[in-house]
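quick one, 235 residues, struct below
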Amino acid sequence: MHQTDSALVLFSGGQDSTTCLAWALRRYARVETIGFDYGQRHAVELTVRPAVLAGVRALAPEWDARLGEDHMVDLSVIGKLSDTALTSDVAIAMQENGLPNTFVPGRNLLFMTVAATLAYRRGLNVLVGGMCETDFSGYPDCRDDTMKALQVTLNLGMATRVKLETPLMWIDKKQTWQLAEESGGPALVELVRTGTHTCYLGERGALHDWGYGCGTCPACALRARGYREYVATKG
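---
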């Protein structure tokens, strides 16, 4: 427990950010959350988000005591500027530049900048994000080098010493499920499985063994494979 540090967690209501929230609640005496409405196609994540937060609070009295305010920010400008499969109703495909069209240019850069601005006002000195370079679909704004460079830039531009933490950076989805269990036990794993949303298409129909989703988009495929590998290690 870092008694002198306080964290702001980028929390979408998905698997990765929920795991990161639990990770932060084990380490910091004060934790707040921030979410973004950017015109995402899978806006259902914003619908399930409050219930997931309530579920995290209910897992442990000490987590409930440490978890402070939640902040929602309108970043619809991203959707207005972007023409991607996450902000428009188009088929998911690869682009000529080698990136999938689910990549939203500038999204994580803007998320972290806005989060740093809020953290400055709230007196929080750690930003926690679910960026990952292991299962990251090639998104350049999920790379460790990007986050390290952004940390330097934010601190130079704000005269702060904020730290960017990315606990999932070097682990795959199986290990992300394992981290959820390590952080909050089987109850957190079940909350992640049944409560969170990852599917790019916003599908919340049938509950699969790994959670809700279409089962075919890249986000669902990663989540499903990771869950089944995680379960296999327990059997």
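The chain has a mean pLDDT of 89.
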